[in-house]
Amino acid sequence: MRVFLTGATGFIGSAIVKELTEAGHQVLGFARSDASAASLKAAGVEVHRGALEDLDSLKRGAQTCDGVIHTAFIHDFSQFMVNVETDRRAVEAMVSALQDSGKPLVITSGSMMVAHGRPATEQDAPMSVEVPRAASEAMVLAADRGVRGSVVRLAPTVHGAGDHGFVPRLINIARETGLSAYVGDGANVWPAVHRLDAAHLYRLALENAEPGTRLHGIAEEGIPFRAIAEAIGAGLGIPVRSLTANEAPAHFDFLARFVATDNPVSSAITRKSLGWHPEGPDLLSDMRDNGYFA
User: Which value, in Å, is the radius of gyration of the alpha carbons in the chain?
Assistant: First the structure.
């Protein structure tokens, strides 16, 4: 297939480029900047210039391809809800461009939208229609659009070489404050997945996911947050201790809304339906062995 890929130079997107090309697909990479365009060209990827706010550019990219994978997101958490709305409009534009074509559209969501305090499954709808990205999920999964839509819900930590997500931010906070912290008893859990396993899942979804499918990019169902904090403390050689819920915002800043979330998530349905078998290292081993504390 010729695949339109947003976020093609990102942490996950760049791994998807390699995954797709090695499987024989052609990639049309969405590039906002000259630097991104140059990076794609250097990798032998055809470039489509545009931005998430430029809906016409998204429509043109989608219409010229056999399928779409959408991983781009503006990671400015000071404008998080604004960026969620930008994402919704972008997804709406691509759904509109593909309507009644039967072509695959794979978008990205997050497992924390189904944080029930028990292992969430692919059958679980978002906790509320107000949850970020819930509207994007609903559009893509709608049966009346004539699109083979699927949603990959990623773990809050997608780890591997080049990680610049939540775990590196937690490490930076610990380094700056001299303390690695968790909230309460730290028994709440986060799921995790390696970036190469996530990239493989996106390809399988593009090729084989049934219309209206939710998929969970989850390799580890749940790692106690205290274990993550202890791994950070060991990696930096600093103390580890509990904070109260009232103390957490001052220490974690915007991450305070996430660090105490209990988010056990199953990927059993995804594994069975697509034959997906994660093979990458687990999060704590990856943190210890692969440069997270350099």
Answer: 19
